[in-house]
Amino acid sequence: MNNMSDFHISFTVLNQEYYDSIEKSLKAIQKESCKITIISEKAINTEFDNFVLNEFFINYPDEVKDLNPKIWKNKKLFQADPRYVNKDKKINQALQQNYINACRKYFSTNKVDVMFSGAAGYLIWTIPHTVALEFGVLSYKLLQTEYLNPYLKGKRIWFSTNLFWDLKVNESSNFNYDNQKIKEHISDLKHSMLVDDFNWAKKALELRKNYSPNSIYLVIKRFLKIIFKNDYLSKFAISSFVNTYLNLRHYIKNTEIDFNYILYPLNQPNDEQLLVRAPNFQNNITNIKMLADCIPKNIKLIVKEHPVNPGMIKSKDIKLLKNTFSNLYFVDPNIPIRPLIKKSSGIFTINSTSGIEALICGKKIIVMGNSYYKYNNMAIKPTSKENLKQAIEELLSDSKIDHNSTEEMLKTLINQTYPEPCTYEIKNSETFLEDALISKINILKNSKR
Known about the structure:
The chain is an alpha/beta fold.
């Protein structure tokens, strides 16, 4: 590319409100001699070019059968859309097919250097991203990853180029930070966890009220949504609120844990980690049964609900599970997870930050979903439910702990994030997004010179 003004950037936007929130950043990026196109399902009021997907939608699209399984590891991404989770019948397979066809039209008729998408599981942020990979177009989802900073200080954006978190996809476009700085950053992160015992869930707990209401006002608000909108997520929130208290009778106390156990920290029921990256393991109760049925008789299974969503498992379901499996225990989701990790024989996870926390603590993990643990030698990855018993045997074996593998994983992760390592003071939080994007864009431009 000789003329950098030809550098073409596409942004997928959810709606007008989302666009308005990033418009200032887009205008700053435009000044860097970039052409910008907005991709949206419906028309957006914008000064930039706008490729509107629904202009190419048809009522009865043909089923898309040519989905490369190496790219489309989940062929029903529409089920991860928050609107589908909330029982919106307009979010279905036909809409996904229309999205795929329209996005293929876009990438076959436009030369795109890079595309940026939001973090959540909305179709506008999953389908264009995945179709871009079909066309060899570099595409990033922008994910908040402050948990990679010691004590959750400052901000950090992960430019994730693969929906299924394969760190090696497009790794040639990573940032190339100073190795010594990265080592210092990782050392500080580990010190915050292993020496100062900093609680990683601290910031996440601030979101608890969105899932398990903790005041009369929030309960009433949820009931009103149920009455006037028949809102499914509000029904689940009320159920969580009730079961938060009913479940207390089922929890084992810390002082009673005097046995060997595998720890299973649950994902939230409607978590993107399950719906996008683990389509075969979306049901927490089914997963608990599968694991409890496979572990040896001399090992117990401790299950911990997600701290953001206490009461996510109904009291009657916990009672039934405990009556079925004598080796199964539940702990209070309010207690810190790290002491449980350190005392455990290992961790079972679908895909969660508890996995990386366990790896940093020197524990082996079994991971069932697609994750950035993929290349870590301490992560055991059963290819099916059938060989889970063998994976558990490996987890419990005395095989050597490979700390270097975790160090390399963290190094790669940090090289895919902004700002540079050991940077925690953000000079201007209002321009942080555009600063991050411009930094990445300049790297990509320089690589084309």
